[in-house]
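Journal club side-thread
Mid-discussion, someone asked how the predicted structure for our own chain would compare to the paper's figures. Pasting it here so we can look after the session.
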Amino acid sequence: MAKLFKHKKSFGIAAILVAVAVVGLYMAIQDFRGGNRDVLLRIRGRDGAVEVAQQVLDSLKSVGMESIPSKALDDTTFDVHTIDRKWARGLRDSATVTYSSQVTVSATSNNASQNVSPFETTSHVYAKQVKVKVSWNFKGSTQSIEVSSVIR
């Protein structure tokens, strides 16, 4: 029986260390790939939010300044309907992100001109400061961006 164990070879310490190094390298690469995937999804989500904010601003500019609700002394805030964006990823798979938008119109008292004559006094709002806040969920937390513009 002792003769049987003398001829059997086992793994040496060097082979075990090489195997551990290879498995560790493989796990590090897998973790790196997962991190890159999250970064790409975060970038796509942010780019989609910028696109949605620009779309909302363009819509507000197209309806005209007079159609945008505002108050002289207080900010006015209103919500815009949710917008979905969809990206293809891989074969026959896609990612959908739902964006919610909130528009804040600053008080118009700073952007008003007043003309006084002996017969009448007129005032006119010539611009409105608009902020669009776009929010979306990413991995359980709410991400948001805010874009500002002046509409004349």
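Post-session note: The chain has one domain: 11-151.
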